[in-house]
Amino acid sequence: MSTAFESQLSVELWPATAEAVVPTGTPAASAVLSTPGQAESAAAKMAPRLFAQAAETDVVGAFPSKEFDWMRKAGLLTATLPAAMGGAGLQDPAATLALLRVLQHIGQGNLAVGRIYEGHLNALLLIQQLGTPAQVKRYAADARAGLLFGVWNTEDPAEGVRLEALANGRYRLRGAKTFASGAGHLQRPLISGALPDGQGWQLFVLPTDQQPPELDRSFWRPLGMRATASFRADLTDLEIGSEDLIGAPNSYYRQPGFSGGAIRFAAVQLGGAAAVFEETHAFLRVLGRTDDPYQRQRLGEMAIALESGQQWLRGAAEHAARPDATTPEAAEATVAYANMTRTAIETICLTMLQLAERSVGARGLLQPLPFERLHRDLTHYLRQPAPDGSLADVGRFVLEGKSFVS
Question: How many degrees, rounded to 5, is the angle at CA 257 between CA 253 and CA 262?
Answer without folding.
Answer: 100
